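ok so dumb question maybe but i'm new to this and my supervisor (M.) told me to 'just get the structure for Aspartate--tRNA(Asp/Asn) ligase' and walked off. so i did the thing. is this what she meant?? sequence i used:
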Amino acid sequence: MIERTYTSEITEAMDGETVSVAGHVHELRDLGGLVFVIVRDRDGLIQGVFKEDREPELFEQAEELGAEDVVRVTGEVTESGQAPGGVELVPEELEVIDEADAPLPLEISKDVDADLSTRLDHRGVDLRQPEVMAVFTLKSKLMDAMEEWFQNEGYVDVETPLISKGGAEGGAELFPVVYYEQEAFLSQSPQLYKQILMASGFDKIYEVGTAFRAEDFATSRHVSEISMFDVELSYIEDHHDVMDVQEESLRYALRAVADEAERELDELGVDLTVPEEDFPRITFDEALDILEAQFGHFPEDPTDLDTKGERLLGQHFEEQGHPAFFVVGYPGEKFYYMQDVEGDDIASRKFDLIYKGQELSSGGQRQHDVDVMKEVMAENDVPEENFEFYLEGLSYGTPPHGGYGLGIDRLVQKVCDLDNIKEAILFPRDPTRLTP
Ligand code: ATP
Ligand code: AMO
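this is what came out, is it supposed to look like this??
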C-alpha cells in the first residue's frame, strides 16, 4: 500500500510530525509567491502551504497542478489558526500520481449548483463533492447497523433469485429478460421466496437485495432499480409483531447514525431526530379522517393514500413529535398473500410505514392457508399456473408469518433530507437513464 494518513487522523496534537496525505486536488489558491493546495481524501480536506521563498522547487511544482489531479503531499503538520481544520502541511515532497483532464464537467469545490440530470450524467465526478459522498458513507453506517440488529436477534441472512417467472406484486411493472426459451422477468420483490422459506422453517430471515419496477413515470420517489431490505418472521400472533420488529430495528439504525455518522450529518446539514417514542399506529379510516378534518384533503382514489395525503399526515404527526407512523389496513389492496380478518372486506393486516411524510415500507401478516389464497387469486384473475411453485411451497405445513419490504433508497433519501431519491443512489436507473 502507498503510505498515507487520512485527513481525519491529523490533529493539532500531531504538530511537528511528518505525514503523507494522498487525494485529489480539491482547490488551488495562487496568491503570488504563495500557493495553497487543498487536498481532499474520503474523510475531508487539508491544506498544503507552498511558499516560493521557502521551497522554490516545490512551489514551482505546485503552480503547475490542476484541479482534481491525484497527488501525495508529504510534509510537517503545523498548527495554524488560519487553516480550515486548525492544521496545515508545510511541504517536503509533492508527488503527482495522476493528472486530471480539464475542464471538469462539474465544479467540485465551488458552490455552483448543477441540475440533478447534469450531475447524474457525470456521477463519477459529482460523487467527489464531500456532501454527496457523505450520503453514501452515512448509508453504509445505517445499513450496517440495520443488519446488526437482525443479526443480534438471530435472523438468517438470505439471498433469493433476481430472475423470476412472474411478478410478486402484480403484472404491470415487470422488466422482461431474455432467458433461453422461456418467458422470464427481473424480480419485483422476494416476497414469494421469503414465504416459502418460512414454510421451510427458517423462522426469521432478512435479505438486502435489489428489486426492479418498470415504473413508466418520473417522480422524486420512484426509480426502476431499488435496494430493498426485506424481512420475514414466523409464529407471529398478528401484524403488530411485524410492526414491532420494523419499529425497533429502524430506531436502532437511526440511533447508530446519530451516534456514529456525526461528520456526515454535519456535512449534509441534517439534524436527525431519532423517534424514541412508540410509532403511532392508525387505521386507514383514521388517516382519511385526519386528512379531512385537519387539511380538507380527500385522496383522489379513496382506497389509497396519495403523495399529498402521505405528506400531510407526515406533517400532522411530525408536529406531535412522531417522524414515523404506521397506517394499517388498506381497502384497495386485497392481495392474495395478505391476510384479512374474517368477515372484514379489507386487507386488514397490511400496513405501510410512513417516515417523514413518505411511504417507506409495506408489510403485513400473510395468508398461510393455500385454499383461501387460491380463492383470492381466482377472484382477482391472478393466473395460478405462474405461482405453482409458491402454492406448492406453502402446502406442506406453513406457520403463521408476516414481514415487510423497506425501500432502502427512500430511507436514505429521508434521513439525508434529499429532494430526490436518485440522490440517494450511486448510479440510479429510471425510464431514460441507463448510464453511467
Ligand atoms: P407501493 O408499490 O407499495 O404502493 P409506492 O410508493 O411505489 O409503493 P404506489 O402505489 O406505486 O406506491 O404509488 C404511491 C403514490 O405515488 C401514489 O399514491 C401517488 O401519489 C404516487 N404516484 C404513483 N404514480 C404516480 C405518477 N404516475 N405520477 C405521480 N405520482 C405518482
Ligand atoms: P412494496 O411494493 O410496497 O412492497 O415495496 C416496498 C417498498 O419498496 C419501495 N419501493 C420503491 N422505491 C423506489 N422506487 C420504486 N419504484 C419503488 N417501489 C417500491 C418503497 C416501498 O414501500 N412484497 C412487498 C413487501 C412485503 O410485504 O414484504 C413489497 O414489495 O419504499
